[in-house]
Amino acid sequence: MPVPWVQYVLDEPLSVYLQGPWSYIRSYGIYAGAAFLARKYFAGSTNTWERNMHGKVVMVTGGTSGIGAAVVEDLARRGAQIVLLVRSLSDEFTVDYITDLRARTDNQLIYAEACDLADLSSVRKFATKWIDNAPVRRLDMVICAAGVATPPFKERRVTRDGVEEQWGVNYLAHTHLLNILSPALRAQPADRDVRVILLTCAAYVLADLDLADFDFQKRGYPSSRPWRVYGASKLALMTYGAELQRRCDVYERPDKNPNKVRVMMVDPGLIRTSLTRRFLTFGSLFGLLIYLLTWLFWAFILKTPLGGAQPVLHCAMSPEVLQGEGGKLFGECREKKAQRKEVEDRGFATALWEVTEKEVKALEVRSTLEKKKAEKAEKVAEKKEAKKGKLSYMNMPGSPSEASRIWYKTFRYKLMNEAPSHNSAFKVYSLHAPVFP
């Protein structure tokens, strides 16, 4: 009967039932609490600002994966018009991604534009098409979230322009894009705040940046320490951002209103993305196996892409970032001081800007000449193939050329056998082939 059991439960003190669990709490509670606090620390801060993004036009590089994808989805849910810069518009993954994103966010104002960051001519083609419009097209925000990182002990990779991939994609492509778009950014109405957000990485502290040898061609590519190259690209991007802010500040608008462009650099922290995973696994199957075995550790100390997107969203929404001077570094949703003096060195920034412009110009000229040479060679090859195909057709049995050749042989045979041998004129005529149409 249940009545005696109920009576027993009511008669016993509560401490009897808590004695077992309480011993476990006293033994392991401190470790559980420490783990909870550590995880909260590694997870980073959260953006607390809200902003109505309806009608805002946001251009994003690297918006289909990692931090960029998390930022894009959050802004799309708030009603922003998103322009994704992608390598190819015909890529099935891109088409499916945009279709799914539109359905998830209930926002149909999500588009893609072809802009391959590994090809400077593709960047120029898109950017010039964007600014070639009157009146100027609306552009409220540019978020540069794309990036590549070569794993250790891998060979040096280059872009289509022949420059080291990390330097070319992380730095040159973004600076080239912003330099061309800068007139459109400065020409926005005075009552519209324009934000440029550049994603960097803590690896900039380890950078080895030499203005005479950007991509380690002379010094040799450090395959055992690729973070020197990756960090150099991020350090250069931060220095460029600070200089871009200074140049926007000194620009005098035709309407005499103050500058409304704000450039911000964001360090999102350590994020669990495909780029980080490929770097940690050294780009190998054995490294991937080790990563899977230690996955709990990496899941504990690395932020999720959404967690890494929080400082970016803070810079995209907070009105505080518009106060004071621009060109600042942000991390964990607050302003930080850069750990490398080059970021705030105006002389170094000016030299970097000038050298970058020369390098981009030289790469574009070389790339254009190579493309023209390749196109010319392709046309010659096509003509040869067409000629070869035509000759093959003319030599086919039953073709006009074959019929003419048979007729001529028959006609010449008859002339040589039926004509008098003393007629020299006739002999001369018979030795020369007639002209056929």
From TrEMBL:
Organism of provenance: Saitoella complicata (strain BCRC 22490 / CBS 7301 / JCM 7358 / NBRC 10748 / NRRL Y-17804)
Keyword Transmembrane helix on entry: yes
Source organism superkingdom: Eukaryota
Keywords annotated in UniProt: Membrane, Oxidoreductase, Transmembrane, Transmembrane helix
An MF annotation (GO) of this entry: oxidoreductase activity
The protein's name in its UniProt record: Ketoreductase (KR) domain-containing protein
A Pfam family this chain is assigned to: adh_short
Similarity comment: Belongs to the short-chain dehydrogenases/reductases (SDR) family.
Presence of keyword Membrane: yes
Transmembrane segments: 279-301
Source species taxonomy: Eukaryota, Fungi, Dikarya, Ascomycota, Taphrinomycotina
InterPro entries recorded: NAD(P)-bd_dom_sf, SDR_fam
CDD domains according to UniProt: retinol-DH_like_SDR_c_like (cd05327)
